[in-house]
Amino acid sequence: MNATSSMGIATVRPCFRLLLGGSGKAAGALSKYPFLFSKCSRIRPMASSAGVRRRSVVPARAVAGARSMGTSAESAVGREKAFDRIYKEGLAGKPIVIDRVEPEIHQQPGPPPAAEKEEQEELAPPTKETEEEKEAWRLLRKSVVNYCGSPVGTVAADDPMTGGQMLNYDQVFIRDFVPSALAFLLKGETEIVKNFLLYTLQLQSWEKTVDCYSPGQGLMPASFKVRTIPSSDENEAYEVLDPDFGESAIGRVAPVDSGLWWIILLRAYGKISGDYALQERVDVQTGIRLILNLCLTDGFDMFPTLLVTDGSCMIDRRMGIHGHPLEIQSLFYSALRCSREMITSNEGSKNLIVAINNRLSALSFHIREYYWVDMKKINEIYRYKTEEYSSDAANKFNIYPEQIPSWLVNWFPDRGGYLIGNVQPAHMDFRFFSLGNLWAIASSLTTPWQAEGILNLIDDKWDDLVGNMPLKICYPAFEFDEWRIITGSDPKNTPWSYHNGGSWPTLLWQFTLACIKMGRPELARKAVAVAEKRLSKDKWPEYYDTRTGRFIGKQSRLFQTWTIAGYLTSKLLLEKPELASILTCEEDLELLEGCSCSLKKSARTKCSRPSSKSQVLI
Ligand code: GLC
User: Fold this and answer.
1) Counting beta carbons within 10 angstroms of the beta carbon of residue 465, is it exposed (0 to 12), middle (13 to 18) or buried (19 or more)?
2) What is the CA(7)–ligand 1 centre distance, in A?
3) Pfam families this protein is in (predicted)?
4) Fewer CB in 10 Å around end: N or C, the chain?
5) What whole-number distance in Å separates Cα of residue 175 and Cα of residue 314?
């Protein structure tokens, strides 16, 4: 594979299967491909008396590459030395990254911006922490990962009981770090989040392959690990950041949600710290665009929803969520809303902003109209005619009413409703997925009326969705043949365990956020009280099993960081509900009024929006 492409590395590289099997091999890789690793040297602990700590090293070839790249790169490097990626406009108006320069991220954090300072003062802890909170803070701080002496993230779990079976739980997961980041931000500690945002940005589009096939430029890793690599000088070792884009992950799935979470966190960081300069940086703007380019690329799809493979989000194993799963759509919508606020408006970004608005408008219509179910809608589906060939069919996706599962008929309460898990041709996945529904509320992907309905449903179905531990990842579980066929007989995803109807305490913070947004903090307090009874006693498990979440999960890690951080974030949000706005978006009526497809104007095509019995503006 020719590697001159995205990184501008002027070398023809052989197919590079990841060489980091062990530290010896890694050292080999480092000397052979020095440009592949962001490295900093560090003195081995035993030799710390040896003295001076070295500055982070810029791989020499990378800098030389930048200098030889021609005028635009040269001038850009000259103008702004701190940018880690310098880019120029490509032929199609898309940015092409042509090189990286080590960012000045962590050496001297410098004084916080005025707004940040004020915010920090304002955020000084006002209330007395409970014993559980104190323990949670101690554990959260213990989970912090340092790179070149600076905090850059938190490990997924720090479970002493796993006996060498850490798998990748010793890595910093992008999605898992979000609640950690929020707990730190809400506490007024911004440095770790800033470092995380900038270092993960450096990892974006790292050229990793699965059997010589590279994922698209702009992909953010699922996780990364700080590896220590011995140097030829035995008193020294190098630290490198080693990302995993799914090429080592179980099932080899690409994490579609990582980039979306990164954008959401970037906005939250700016809003709470006042450090808007970070999102304005050229490299950060490029990072946002690269993620969006990946998401907005035209494909064969007929829907505005994002088409993904099974397991491309929090549920990262086969669970029958391939296609257009709600979780991805909610995060996608939220990331588009956040990006629209952050993208610097100029000639170069005009088209992108138009594309974002068009997609937001189509996406919210689609989800509000076709994913929403309540008693009335289910009754409509129950009476659907099928095989309708026309552009104004009532049953657009040709859903056979027999698909309505028997559990739903008996389970559905009279009040409330929810967004179903997936909509595809001739297929509706009627399972309730918590994250997608909660995040749809937070981002205003639903109407306010629908958001209210979702919270009513959770309230009415408390025993099923909260029970002994908030919150069910999805309801109900696949059992028997469905489990065998859809999960592929996955022994980790047995009924009412793990992703298949298990209860995940980390979802508590998202529930709290949605409740605060809808003015119902008492509902969140009720859930926090349920969690608080057990989390510390049970050693902060990753997930719980059984229909009502009574048992600690069969293969659950203990001291799972996002369980701990989710709890802290919930507490902090309830203490300062006004800060929930760093994560939420308000209803944008303009988006709903504009029928972005301009189909109305076209004689050849038809827009079903005006004729549809719409939930859109309720
Ligand atoms: C599991 C979860 C995933 C999480 C990871 C690390 O794989 O399914 O969502 O990011 O563990 O905690």
Assistant:
1) buried
2) 29
3) Glyco_hydro_100
4) C
5) 8
What pLDDT digit, counting tens, does each position of 521-554 carry?
A: 999 999 999 999 999 999 999 999 999 999 999 9
Closest CA to 535 of 572, 568, 510, 495: 568
DSSP 368: I
The beta-carbon contacts of 345-353 under 8 Å, at least 24 apart in sequence, are: 348/89, 348/93, 349/289, 351/93, 352/289, 352/292
**C-beta 156 within 6 A of ligand 1:** yes
Estimate the share of the chain in helix, then strand, then coil, as percent rounded to the nearest 5: 45, 15, 45
CA of 316 to the centre of ligand 1 (A): 7
Using DSSP's 3-state secondary structure scheme, residue 558 falls into coil
Tell me the helices (H) and strands (E) count for the chain, helix number first.
22, 14
Closest ligand 1 atom, CA of 222?
10
Contact 6, 207 (CB under 8 A): yes
3-state SS assignment for residue 414: coil
Percent above pLDDT 90 for the chain: 65
Ligand 1 mean position to 314 CA, how many Å?
6
- In whole angstroms, give the CA distance from residue 74 to residue 489: 56
Q: Say how many Å lie between the CA of residue 222 and the centre of ligand 1.
A: 9
Parallel, antiparallel, or unpaired: how do β-strands 223-230 and 150-154 relate?
unpaired
